[in-house]
Amino acid sequence: MKLTPSVLNIDWQETQTRIQRFIRDYTEKSQVNGIVLGLSGGIDSCTAAALSALAIGGKRVTGLMLPEKEASTQLDTQHARLIAEKFGLRTEEVDITRTLETFYRSIPTFEAKDRLTKANIKARTRMIYVYYQANKHNLIVCGSSDKSETMMGYFTKWGDVAADIHPLMDLYKTQVRQLAHHVGLPEEIVSKPSTPALWPGQLAEDELGIRYEQLDLILYGLEHFMDPSEVSEQLSIRQEAVEAVKHRWLSAEHKRRTLLVPKLEYRTIGTDFRLVRNP
Is 233 in the active site? Predict the structure, then answer.
């Protein structure tokens, strides 16, 4: 197998059809009124929102925008509204700044300088708001995590990954971008750098230490049981870099339990993606 960008190319129309069928079937079988999801304005949430609207109709999809004063940007809000208008979504916007500040004050050991734990509070607070809407209006929560970030453990457990369905989790980030382009998302959203928006200036690739174009090929090779040395040789990168990706993938397995994902690719997180450690 040759690790070139072409290995990540799949039939995008077929993929769109299967994801929309997955969303529609699960919604119907759950006997709910529709779907709610956090609509951040990023590529993943915008793609999940668009596919949900195409699957069951935009009037049955609520995009919940949850800005806060520290990290939210006007551009992200504009992009969320753009998607909502284009695909006919219902929207609700709630500023969660006061809730976050109350949480911070109520934790005796809270330290504002501890950026990671503070960020996790933000992610889990967002989840509380989304699930409140789901409970109140008899909706299911649609997640927007992709395969790259899920494999790398780049998410907050019981935070941004908390959802009832994950229609994008069997697609790598670069694949999500291609699917988004196929579905008709504006280029300014498709090409925008990814960020969890948990602190000012946060960028996903900076934290991961690698560009998605390279990360996805490494993960694809590891997914298909290629030896790190072979991945390294084919991609002309240091084997240590491949080993580092593999180590992070394996060490984050505890974060990837009981996730419901449509079967789209070779090994699917939560379905048949089982890890066997060497003794």
Answer: no
